[in-house]
Amino acid sequence: MTKKEITRHDGRKWNETRTISAQAGVIPQADGSAVFTIGNSTAYAAVYGPQELHPRFMQNPKTGILRCHYNMLPFSGPGSRGRPGPNRRSQEISMVTQNALSPVVDLTDYPNSVVDVHIEFTQTDAGSRCAGICAAAIALADAGIVMKDLVSAVAVGHLDGTVVIDLDGEEEHFDGEVADIPIAIIPSTGEVTLLQMDGLTQPELIIEAIKRGREEIEVITKVQRDALLKKFSSEITGVQEAKTALKKILSEEKK
Amino acid sequence: MTAKLHIQERQIVVPGQVLATGLEYLPSKGTYRHNDTIRANRIGLVQIDGKVIKTIPLAGRYLPKRGDTVVGRISDVLISGWRVDLHTMVDSVLSLKEATNEYIKRGEDLTRYFALDDWISCKITQVTSQNLVDVSMRGPGLFKLEGGTIIEVDSQKVPRIIGARGSMVRMLKKATDCNVVVGQNGVIWIKGEPDMEVIVIRSIRLIEQNSHLQGLTETIKEFLEDLTGNEVE
Fold first, then answer.
1. The CATH number of B69-145 is which of 3.40.50.150, 3.10.310.10, 3.40.50.1100, 2.40.50.140?
2. I need a labelling partner for B190 at 20 to 30 A (CA). Which of A223, B73, B77, B120 fits?
3. What's the confidence (pLDDT) of residue A111?
4. What confidence tens digit (pLDDT) does each residue in B20-33 have?
5. Phi/psi at B7 (nearest 5 deg)?
6. Using a CB-CB distance cutoff of 8 angstroms, which residues of chain A are in contact with residue B202?
7. What is the ipTM of this complex?
């Protein structure tokens, strides 16, 4: 069933994701940050903390907590300006993102504190919660948070009974039977930390789709790891720039 | 199952990366065992000591530790002491008797000694399990920081800024004739000629940017010699 060749509107194969790229350390002021792009969905994640947690009633004396904020920018949609600020949908996705990331982070060294994860989208074209989770995992590692592994996520699904990986916006609105199943997985253990579904499907299709998703997760994990490794290049940088900038400042002062 | 090492000394690793397989190797700080593999649990540089594998963190906020010298800001005046902001998740307390040798009368205005927004260098005397911190100013090199410039750096990079047995910070002080206090919490106080302060700040930023690389002392030495025109030992 899955091997049936279908043509997707953008020419991808059934098991092909859109172009993926990632970069760590894009927001200097944050403790950790990352941008993760899959096709036309771009997620920026910034991590602040561990820091003091307010309101105080949320404090947990046994461990620090993770707090995620998911937000789509008003211009990120298909063209019309969205209503800014939190809404029912973003609150739900903030919660599932938090649940997807919490199993890997260990904040027992930081009682009563919080790690804030802000995820913002400059453009969205389906698969945004998966992109957000991928970006947040890189940003958390970049912030030096103790975590047993990264978390990688991808959307799987089917179009009229054919399993496909990483549905885009047009495919989600496919005229026929369609299902969109975002999954997040801890690569080292294979544990699933996020599994949702939207649409119509059969049990066999879900099992098949998740199996294919697991294979694709490995590719995404590699992109995430490479982004982190790339941030710490192996050459001493910035010496010459600092020298020339400083010399200029000092000579101007003498005048 | 044969033991196998998957990484080299001083290699950069990311959370979840397999460092070694087999039960022969032992996980230490920054690593954990998962079945028969040892994996990293934070971004860091690998250090292998015989059969023990650990990682030196490359990022992360400061976690208060007893005995650390830190630089903090007076954030509040209490009934018998001061609250000090150390740029961690909880504030610390400097009690009256740890602050000064002078006799302070009951009910006296404590801002005469330390006012809000004053900066001090102090030592951490106690950290509880809930990360409540007590600091003291009794000891050599602990004083009120008057004038100068305060900068913040990543606290994980402080060991490189101080250098082996203080070599790096000694070089900075000597080359620029500035007074420099480096707090383990990543707050640094610099006081000297304005030009020289700028050179120290830029040098520290360079160290911070390249802290995971070897041969930094030589590069910074050249940098300082070029900018100050003085020979550095």
1. 2.40.50.140
2. B77
3. 92
4. 998 999 999 999 99
5. -135, 170
6. 242, 245-246
7. 0.88
pLDDT of B2 > 90? The answer is: no
CB contact B10 to A (< 8 Å): no
pLDDT at A117: 98
Q: The tokens of A101 are what?
A: 């990331």
Low-confidence ranges of chain A (pLDDT < 50): 1-2
Residue in chain B nearest A237 by alpha carbon: B210
Cα–Cα distances (Å) from B188 to A26, B135, B176, B205, in that order, read 25, 17, 16, 11
Inform me whether the C-beta atom of residue A56 falls under 8 Å from chain B C-beta atoms.
no
Tens digit of each residue's pLDDT (9 = 90 or more) over B36-57: 999 999 999 999 999 999 999 9
Residue range B4-57 in CATH 2.40.50.100: yes
Q: What is the 3-state secondary structure (H, E, C) of chain B?
A: CCCEECCCCCCEECCCCEEEECCCCEECCCEEEECCEEEECCCEEEEEECCEEEEEECCCCCCCCCCCEEEEEEEEEECCEEEEECCCCCCEEEEHHHHCCCCCCCCCCHHHCCCCCCEEEEEEEEECCCCCEEEECCCCCCCEECCCEEEECCHHHHHHHHCHHHHHHHHHHHHHCCEEEECCCCEEEEECCHHHHHHHHHHHHHHHHCCCCCCHHHHHHHHHHHHHCCCCC
Instruction: State chain B's maximal CA–CA distance in angstroms.
Output: 71
CATH hierarchy code of domain A20-254: 3.30.230.70
